[in-house]
Automatic annotation (TrEMBL):
PROSITE patterns: TAT. InterPro entries: DUF1501, TAT_signal, TAT_signal_bac_arc. This is DUF1501 domain-containing protein. It holds the Pfam family DUF1501. Transmembrane segments: none annotated. It comes from the Bacteria.
Length: 416
């Protein structure tokens, strides 16, 4: 990289002022990207805060469900969309129902990482993104998507955008990747903006990046005040989950911008992308809070589909969360941190129209520690089979390099 390019990068970094703190930003984490020599695409969405799989993919056919939840009513009789006579889809995901009917949407239920019992968002998310059995020193600090790239020769990074935060752990590691973040407000005077344009005039890469950042900055400034109000409501361990208690009105547009940018890169050289959506920690008022988060997820997926065009047929989207929530509704019409949860899969490459996994049951004796949905599948195995199908990875590579020590089990045949 030339000195002139580095100077432009330094210029951008120094003139970019964060419009929101990391805790307050409704666009909590950056989009991470990596190009690869495959035609298929993979998008991994991390759902930060622990999504309640029992409310998203409702097992209304299990007679024990109603006894655990007084106000979180489930099933088609309460507005959910029937999937298969046993599971129903949360009403807030109704816009995705046509994807289910087209076999472009599916779920894996009763899944989890190896994380158990402590139920810390931060440890749970780190383990999900690391893809290892534990977070000890021996496990390293790279992410499973980066380890996937490390197994392939000749990897090249996507265009590097200097404006933004560091990579998510999911794509952090030795393999080259690119990073871009929209949660930056470029508070430049007209003279400063003009100076930036002149500095980068002969460098299309940074000129285009700066123009895009300016556009996104306008959307961010409109959201800034509401996002800051949301952050003031959070405390203690919840600080890292900010944006989830009070979703700003402009947040839908924010996630749409992220999905549009992701699809734009996937239409070009990028083959792997990841970003995250907050808002899933529903300790109280779950009915409203979960609906807001699901609307964000729905917007992201539908935007990806629309913007990818014909490339949607070669795309798999995996939406994963750090752990599930308790089977029993708490006293504030919410649910607490649990264990087993659900994973969403979308895309034209996905064999959708079904809920994968072995259902463990919801009677008290069937629950994990008599409080949580019992995991019957490892969420990493579903991701492993998806990558094996998309990219032709050897089974041993998945088990030894990408997810060390993972028992892949039987092929669930997730892809078409």
């Amino acid at each position: 990289m030339s000195d002139s390019t580095l100077s432009r990068r330094a210029f951008l970094t120094r003139t970019a002022i964060l419009g929101c703190s990391a805790a307050a930003s409704p666009l909590l984490t950056p989009v991470s990207l990596a190009s690869a020599p495959w035609d298929n695409r993979l998008v991994v969405i991390i759902l930060r805060g622990a999504m309640d799989g029992l409310d998203v993919v409702q097992p209304y056919g299990d007679p024990a469900l109603a006894g655990w939840r007084r106000t979180l009513s489930a099933g088609p009789q309460n507005g959910a969309l029937d999937l298969d006579g046993f599971f129903a889809l949360h009403p807030a995901l109704a816009p995705l129902y046509p994807l289910w009917q087209a076999n472009d949407l599916g779920f894996a239920h009763a899944v989890s990482t190896p994380y158990r019992d402590k139920r810390s968002h931060f440890d749970g998310q780190d383990l999900l993104e690391a893809g290892t059995a534990n977070l000890g020193p021996a496990a390293g600090r790279d992410g499973w998507l980066n380890r996937l790239l490390q197994t392939q020769p000749g990897m090249s990074a996507e265009t590097a955008y200097a404006i933004g935060h560091d990579n998510m752990l999911l794509l952090s590691g030795a393999a080259p990747v690119a990073n871009w973040s929209p949660d930056v407000a470029l508070k430049l005077s007209p003279q400063g903006a003009r100076l930036a344009e002149l500095v980068m005039h002969d460098d299309p890469l940074f000129r285009d990046a700066f123009a895009e950042a300016q556009m996104l900055s306008g959307s961010m400034q409109a959201m800034e005040q509401q996002a800051m109000m949301a952050s003031e409501m959070m405390a203690g361990d919840m600080q890292g989950m900010a944006g989830m208690a009070a979703a700003p009105k402009g947040q839908a547009k924010g996630i749409e911008l992220i999905a549009e940018f992701t699809a734009k890169r996937l239409r070009a050289d990028t083959r792997i992308a990841s970003f995250s959506i907050g808002g899933w920690d529903t300790h109280d008022g779950q009915e409203r809070a979960l609906s807001r988060a699901l609307q964000q997820l729905s917007t992201a997926i539908l935007t990806l589909k629309a913007e990818l065009g014909p490339h949607w047929k070669k795309t798999a989207v995996l939406a994963m969360t750090e752990f599930g929530r308790t089977a029993k509704e708490n006293g504030t019409k919410g649910t607490d941190h649990g264990t087993g949860g659900a994973m969403l899969m979308a895309g034209g490459a996905v064999r959708g129209g079904r809920v994968y996994g072995a259902w463990p049951g919801l009677s008290e004796a069937d629950l994990y520690e008599r409080r949580d949905l019992m995991p019957t599948g490892d969420v990493r195995a579903y991701a492993g089979w998806a990558m094996r199908g998309l990219f032709g990875l050897d089974r041993a590579v998945v088990k030894q390099a990408v997810f060390p020590g993972l028992d892949l089990g039987t092929d669930p045949k997730l892809l078409r």
